[in-house]
Design goal:
By secondary structure, the protein is of the alpha+beta class. It has 15 helices and 13 strands. The chain has a single domain, classed as Orthogonal Bundle (Cytochrome p450), CATH 1.10.630. The radius of gyration is 22 Å and the shape is globular. One of its GO terms (molecular function) is monooxygenase activity.
Length: 461
């Protein structure tokens, strides 16, 4: 393949000090699409006082993502996200990141994910068991309840009893606070500026930290997540993520500190439910608008599962289900922007990136680029058929990032989404309104209005 040289061009003129922050904050996705369509594949712009470079060509994106663990640092702006996830993998760099990744990644490797499959299915069955033909509910809320239960069981080995609701509310409040910060001037304000959303975040994090301290103490004392022996309904203490984090050792034989266990647990928790619940919400919305795709899903789950609940072994055979997920993640990637700060030696497309430049790429704009995807706004899971005529460049699709800093939970999320969809599709259709749903930007790309699902029981064959 011929190498595409990178030749940055200046983007839109910004305001003094603020740069392009007002335009970006008002509508980030439209702003980024404007950079690509109006200026080119490599555009310089400014986010507040920060010099930035936006990449749109898959070759440049692949090179950037592939080298993020080298001459790049993480983008350390935003007080709220740092207060929530601390010094976890998400915000670590260099030797510290490599040490932590080597200790955390084994907790979500494919073999371990297979052991979580039953929890994924059982949690979905418990939720769907409450549904009746004709029921109506907020789709995202229901998907969040399912994924929240899954992540708590896989992370802590069981439900948390009466604390589950309060803890879930605290995480939701923390995530809303992070979303409030990322699109405006508060992104650059120091932590001592106590805006209302920051006070709410501190209260939420205090609740989360108290529970994490209790859970870690109970686990080290040999008791279960509820304060007694861990029994029933979960993955079991030997298999849960918290136990594995506590048991992890680096090359020197040292464990994660108590704070590191807290930070990695909270990061896995935050990333492990909101991104997947949002992806599932968009998938059901798209299926509701595509009777042909939904009929093909019905046929597949009936043929592959033959009336039994899905298992980890079914994942590879649920080909159409996986294509639905892949196409949903193309149209509505939960993570819509990936940044890193260039250091000495950062090069993309033969161009030396000035030190201190924040380099960005966007799954949203790349996934909807007509150069790489025919009819890019259409929901067409068949474009991912193994025999499809469409030739899609590598890194034109990257909802989980790429390279060594790609999302360690990508396999978990894809298996979880497939098993949830298959479990529900065996029993129900979800008819979603409105038919045309706008989106909004927070930590993830979410529906801007409630999507209401009407449950339709599938006839038993």
């Amino acid at each position: 393949m011929q190498t595409v040289p990178l030749r940055p061009v200046p983007g839109p003129r910004g305001l003094p000090w603020l740069g392009n922050l007002p335009a970006f904050g008002k509508d980030p996705l439209t702003f980024l699409a404007r950079l690509r369509d109006g200026f080119g594949d490599a555009v310089t712009w400014s986010l507040g006082p920060r010099r930035s470079l936006f990449l749109s060509h898959p070759q440049h994106i692949a090179e950037f993502l592939g080298s993020r663990a080298g001459p790049y640092d993480v983008l350390r702006i935003g007080w709220a996200v740092r207060r929530l996830v601390g010094d976890s993998l998400l915000l670590s760099a260099g030797a510290d990141w490599r040490r932590k990744r080597g200790m955390v990644q084994p907790t979500v490797r494919p073999r371990q994910v297979r052991r979580y499959a039953r929890t994924m299915v059982d949690s979905t069955l418990a939720a769907a068991g409450r549904w009746r033909d004709g029921d109506r509910f907020d789709l995202q809320r229901e998907m969040t309840l399912v994924t929240q239960r899954i992540v708590l069981r896989t992370l802590f080995g069981n439900d948390l009893g009466d604390r589950t609701r309060a803890l879930g509310a605290a995480m939701a409040a923390a995530e809303r606070a992070v979303a409030s910060e990322i699109r405006g001037i508060p992104l650059f304000l120091p932590g001592w500026v106590r805006l209302p959303y920051r006070r709410r975040l501190l209260d939420a994090v205090a609740t989360i930290d108290a529970e994490m301290q209790r859970l870690v103490g109970a686990r080290r004392a040999g008791t279960g997540p509820g304060g007694g022996a861990g029994t029933g309904g979960g993955t079991g203490q030997d298999d849960d993520l918290l136990t594995r984090l506590l048991a992890a050792r680096d090359e020197e034989g040292c464990p994660l500190s108590a704070k590191e266990v807290r930070d990695e647990s909270v990061a896995l928790w935050a990333a492990g439910h909101e991104t997947t619940s949002t992806a599932l919400t968009w998938a059901w919305y798209l299926l509701s608008r595509s009777p042909e795709a939904r009929a093909r899903l019905d046929e597949e789950v009936d043929r592959v599962l033959d009336g039994r609940p899905p298992t980890a072994e079914d994942y590879e055979n649920l080909t159409w289900t996986r294509q639905i997920i892949k196409e949903s993640l193309r149209l509505y990637p939960p993570i819509w922007l990936i940044p890193a700060v260039a250091g000495e030696g950062a090069v993309v497309g033969g161009y030396t990136v000035p030190v201190g430049t924040t380099v960005w790429c966007s799954p949203w704009t790349a996934h909807r680029d007509a150069r790489w995807f025919r009819d890019p706004l259409a929901f067409r899971p068949e474009r991912w058929d193994a025999q499809a005529a469409d030739v899609i460049p590598e890194h034109a699709w990257f909802p989980f990032g790429g390279g060594p800093r790609s999302c360690i939970g990508a396999r978990f999320a894809q298996v979880e989404a497939a098993l949830i969809i298959a479990t529900v599709a065996q029993r129900f259709h979800l008819d979603v309104t409105p038919k045309e749903a706008p989106h909004q930007i927070g930590i993830v790309v979410q529906p801007a209005v409630p999507l209401i699902a009407t449950v339709r029981a599938r006839p038993r064959s």
